[in-house]
Amino acid sequence: MRRQRAPAGFALVFIVAAGALLAQSPVTRYIISGTVRLPDGRPAPRITIKATGQTGFDRQVFTDDMGRFELSEIPRGRYFLTATNPADPDQYTDPVEVDTSRSFSGRLVANIFLRNKVDNTTKKENKTATISVAEATQHVPKAAQKVFEQGLRFRSNQQAQKALESFDRAVELYPQYFQAIAERGHLRIGLGQIPDASADFAKALSLNDRYEPALRGSGMCKFQQARFAEAVSDLERATALDTNNATTYLFLGVANASLDRREPARRALEKALALDAAGAARARVHLANLYLKEDKLKDAAAQLDAYLEAVPNAPDVEKIRAVRGQIESRLAKP
Question: Which of 81, 136, 229, 301 sits at 20 to 30 Å (Cα–Cα) from 59?
C-alpha cells in the first residue's frame, strides 16, 4: 500500500477547519474570533484574550457577556492565544496556535476553554524536597511571613486584588522575599499582566536563581511573549528542580514544538501526560500535530481519539472530529 502524505493544513489540528486549502492565502489581514468557556462549560464573560506572534505582535481583547471575542486586522503569520480570568487567577488555558497563512478565508475560529490549576502539593509526597541555600539561610520576619500566608489564602479564595496587596506588603516588609515575589508573578500571569509578572520572576531569580516556581513562571511569560528559545531554557531548568509539575512539561513541549524541535517536544508532552493525564489532556493535540508533520497518520489519529475520549465536550470538538475524519479518509485510500 502506498504511503499517504498528510496535507500541511493538518498541522493545525486545533483551529484549522477540515478541508482548508493548502495553497497560500491571498488575504493579507485576518479576523480571529471564538468563544471562551469556563471549566464547567458555561460561556466565560470578561476574560482577557492575549495574542502574541513571533514578530513581536502583541494584542489584548476581552470577551463579551456571552464569552465571545474578536481580533481584527491581524497580519498573516503564526500566533498563540491565551486566556486569563481576572476573577479567578487559578484558571488558565493551554496556548492555542493560529496560523493565518494556511487559511484561504479571512476569518478563523479559535475556541478556548479554561481549566482549573491542579494542586501538585499532594503529588509530591514521595519526592524529597529540594531546598536551596538561599531558602535554608533565609530569615523571613514574622510579620512578612504572616501577610504572605494571608495572600495565599486570599488567592485560594479567588480574591485576586487582596492577594496582590498582601504580596506587595510582604515584599515591602522583606524585599528579599523571593517566594512572595514569585507568587505575585504567578498571580499577575492570571491577571494577564505579563510584563509585570516577567519583572517579578526576574527579580525573584536575581535573589535565588534556583527557585523553581520563579523559573517556571519566567518560562511561561517568555512563551507568551513568543520568546520560545528563552522559554525552553527556563522551563528545562525548572524541570530539573521539580520533576512532578505537569504544567511545566506541557509549556516546555509546546515551546519546543514552536521551534520545530520535535523529539524534545514529544518527550515533554508525554511526560506531562504521564504526570497528569486529565489535566494535561491537551498535550495529545500537540502530539497529534507532531505526528502529522511526520506523516504518521495512525499515531496522530490515536492521539486525537484519546483526547476526544478524555475531553468529549471540548469547545473545538467538532473541528477535531473533522480533522480526525480526514485522517481516516486518507488512511482508507489505496
Answer: 229
